[in-house]
Amino acid sequence: MNFFESLLSLLKTIQIRDIVDIIAIALIIFGLFKLIRETRAVQLLKGVLVLFIIYFLSSLFGLVMMSSLLRMFFEAAVILIAIIFQPEIRKALEQMGRNNTYKKYLKFFTKHGKSDEWKKAVRKSIIDAADTAVLFSRSHTGALLVFERETMLSDIAATGTIVDAETSVALFGNIFFNKAPLHDGASIIRDGKLFAAGCILPLTDNKNVDINLGTRHRAALGISEQSDAVVLVVSEETGVISLAINGILLRDFTRDSLVTKLEELLLGETPEDEENEKSHKHLRRGRD
C-alpha cells in the first residue's frame, strides 16, 4: 500500500511540461539511434558501452586505478563524443538545416519573394541545361551541373574557377568539351547564372550505391547528400540523363520531363501552375 501511495503522490506532481520534456528527450534519443544505426558510429557506441561495463565492475570490485582512469574518461566524454562522432553530428545538423517543414508555413511569402527577373533567369538556365543535356546524351559527353538552392556552395565553388556568366548551350558545350581544362569538374549554377566551373564535389559515403555508377554520379549523390542542391548528370558511357536530389538518383529523363522536374524543384512550379499562369496572362492581355 505504501508503494502505491508513493506512486500515486508522485504521479500527482507530474505536470504537462514534464510530459513534454520526457517526450522530447525520448524523440532525441530515438533520432540519435536512427542516425547512427547504419554507420560506423554503432561500433564506437558499443565500445563506449563496454567501457561503461568495465567501469561498473571495477568500482564493484574496488579496482581503484581502473575506476579512476575510466572516471576521467567519462568526465571528458562530452568533448570526446564531439570529436569521435563529428561526421554523424555534422550530418544531423545539416539535415536539420535542410528541413523544409517550416517552409510549408512560409510558402506563400517565399513564392512571392522572388522577382520576375530571377524567375526568368532560372527558367532560362533550366532550358539551356536541358538542351545541353540532350545534345550531350546523343554525343555521350559527360556533364555535371549543380543547381544551387538554399544551401550556399561557395566553399565548393572555391575549388574551381569563378565564371559568373549567363548560361547558354554554347557555354556549356565549351566547358564540358573533353579537351577543355574545366570539363572534369562540376559547374555550379546560382540564381540562373553559371557561377563556377571545374569544381570538385565530395563523393557519397553510401555503400549501397550501384557499383556500375562512376565517379561523376557518386559526386552528384555526394553533394546532394550534403546540401539541398539539384544535380544534373549526363553519363559519358551510356548517355543517360539523371538528377541527384537528397541522396537519391532519378534516371532516364527526356528533355521535356527534365524541364518539368527542374521547374518543379527550382521554381516550385508544376505543369498546372504553368497553365494557370499562361491563362492569367491571356486574360490580362484581353483586358488590356
Task: Please give a structural write-up.
The chain is of the alpha+beta class and 288 residues long. It is built from 13 helices and 7 strands. It has a 7-stranded mixed sheet, with helices on both faces. α8 packs across α10 and α8 packs antiparallel against α12. It is elongated. The C terminus is likely disordered.
Please estimate the helix content. Answer: 55-70%
Task: Give the oligomeric state of the chains in this entry, treating copies of one chain as homo and distinct chains as hetero.
Answer: single chain
Query: How does the helix and strand content classify structurally?
Result: alpha+beta
Number of helices: 13
Can you tell me the overall shape? elongated
SSE run: HHHHHHHHEHEHEEHEEEHH
Strand percentage lies at 5-15%
Unreliable stretches:
278-288
Mind sketching the topology for me?
Elements: H1 2-13, H2 16-36, H3 41-60, H4 64-75, H5 77-84, H6 86-97, H7 107-111, H8 116-139, E1 143-147, H9 154-157, E2 161-166, H10 169-175, E3 186-190, E4 193-199, H11 215-226, E5 230-234, E6 241-245, E7 248-250, H12 255-266, H13 271-287
Parallel strand pairs: 1-3
Antiparallel strand pairs: 1-5, 2-4, 3-4, 5-6, 6-7
Helix pairs in contact: 3-4, 8-10, 8-12
